[in-house]
Write a sequence for this structure.
């Protein structure tokens, strides 16, 4: 994850301007002022300060406008090339997350031809599925803040919305754990309760929050003494790598989460003691911090052709080693313990380094077709659904498994049908969640923040900018 640009921007949705009795004469804007987007206004401008006591209640009510929120969801106006590239990365990452969870959450005893799973595990082309846990570290180079309350509410409603031979067996444990441990999710400590009790996939959100808190120890030194800040980041990365290696060695864990070829008990033990813990992913976060620092200090890097060639080559090698470096373990003929320990400690940081290069190269205008793909306008729309998709897709998968009334085949084509079904349904539900829940809450938060800071609520709903 990289730090935001040093600017404070607060925005509210567009709504009709309320009538006023008088309109003060305004001076002609300068060329510099004219260059600003017409959607951005200064909250100190008296023309846009709200007049009337009903301002805040009206704005709060309009936060739930389905029309305005849907329009906001499908807006493709660019917020800068950097954010456009990040949007594309987040969309591809969440699609990969769903792919991994589709395989991980299946009831294996419902599958015919179960023996073929190990055959798939030794297929090098399927490492993207079986070693997909590294993908989540892509998100540690960006930010992900989600409305967990909606997930909890929908969880408690799950027993009422379906049925099937495995419905109670699948849904009841999830609901019971959330009834007991819901507070851990709201306090962002669910990854520290072993194992994660209420929705295991929310461990990432807790880590992200914990890294936000830890980042204070990095940002201040970076502003005052960059060398000291970078030294702190390096120290965090070394501690992360060393702790991952030590825990893997102490508990005799495999190099990573190869779920088709390790025992279920060992898998859950590894999840709770290593994978869910923040120290295991801290090195990834440190790589994102360095990339963000570089982009903030030098937004337009002049990358020479030799640097580009070296950067893309090293990034490709880093990502390929991270993804395919455990192929021998998938085949059951793992390399030496030393190689396994080094992979355990370094593979996530190597993956993040490759992602960081893609980010830097694309923002510097050297990304070529990759930059064009990540910056596609459609990615901006899909990106606005990423948070909600991340929250809701496990519920879709639980519902599918719980209502099954027949066995399925452990074949690739069956898996693909399941995967695309989960993706489409998750995105449709996420669209409703964003329009009816996420956008209104974000808008209300911004309105209340304006009010709390003693600033008047603008009456035309245009973007509000603090310069």
């Amino acid at each position: 994850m990289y730090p935001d640009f040093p600017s404070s921007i607060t925005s509210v949705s567009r709504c009709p301007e309320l009538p006023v009795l008088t309109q003060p004469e305004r001076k002609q804007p300068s060329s510099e002022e004219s260059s600003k987007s017409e959607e951005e206004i200064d909250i100190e401008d008296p023309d846009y300060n709200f007049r009337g006591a009903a301002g805040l209640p009206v704005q709060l009510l309009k936060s739930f406008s389905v029309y305005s929120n849907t329009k906001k969801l499908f807006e493709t106006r660019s917020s800068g090339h950097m954010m456009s590239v990040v949007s594309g990365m987040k969309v591809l990452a969440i699609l990969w997350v769903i792919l991994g969870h589709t395989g991980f959450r299946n009831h294996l005893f419902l599958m015919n031809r179960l023996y073929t799973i190990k055959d798939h595990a030794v297929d090098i082309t399927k490492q993207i599925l079986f070693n997909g846990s590294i993908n989540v570290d892509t998100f540690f180079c960006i930010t992900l803040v989600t409305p967990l309350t909606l997930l909890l509410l929908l969880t408690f409603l799950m027993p009422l919305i379906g049925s099937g031979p495995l419905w109670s067996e699948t849904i009841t444990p999830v609901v019971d754990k959330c009834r007991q441990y819901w507070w851990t999710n709201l306090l962002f400590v669910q990854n520290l309760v072993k194992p994660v009790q209420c929705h295991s996939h929310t461990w990432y959100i807790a880590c992200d929050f914990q890294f936000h808190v830890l980042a204070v120890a990095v940002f201040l030194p970076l502003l005052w003494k960059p060398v000291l800040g970078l030294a702190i980041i390096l120290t965090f990365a070394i501690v992360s790598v060393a702790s991952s290696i030590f825990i893997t060695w102490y508990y005799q864990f495999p190099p990573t989460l190869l779920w088709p070829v390790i025992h279920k008990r060992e898998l859950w033990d590894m999840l709770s003691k290593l994978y869910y813990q923040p120290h295991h992913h801290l090195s990834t976060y440190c790589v994102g911090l360095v990339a963000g620092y570089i982009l903030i200090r030098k937004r337009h890097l002049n990358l020479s052709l030799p640097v580009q060639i070296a950067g893309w080559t090293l990034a490709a090698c880093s990502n390929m080693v991270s993804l395919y470096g455990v192929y021998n373990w998938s085949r059951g003929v793992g390399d030496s313990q030393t190689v396994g320990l080094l992979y355990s400690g370094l593979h996530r940081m190597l993956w993040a380094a490759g992602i960081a290069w893609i980010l830097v190269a694309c923002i510097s205008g050297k990304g070529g077709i990759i930059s064009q793909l990540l910056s596609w306008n459609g990615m901006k729309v899909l990106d606005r659904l990423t948070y909600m998709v991340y929250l809701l897709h496990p519920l879709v998968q639980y519902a599918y498994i719980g209502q099954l009334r027949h066995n399925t085949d452990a074949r690739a084509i069956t898996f693909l049908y399941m995967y695309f079904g989960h993706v489409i349904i998750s995105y449709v539900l996420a669209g409703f969640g964003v329009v009816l829940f996420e956008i209104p809450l974000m808008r209300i938060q911004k309105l209340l923040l304006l009010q709390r800071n003693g600033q008047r609520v603008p009456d035309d709903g245009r973007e509000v900018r603090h310069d």
Q: What stands out?
A: The CA atoms of residues 49 and 458 lie 5 Å apart. The first strand starts at residue 9 and ends at 10. The chain has 20 helices and five strands.
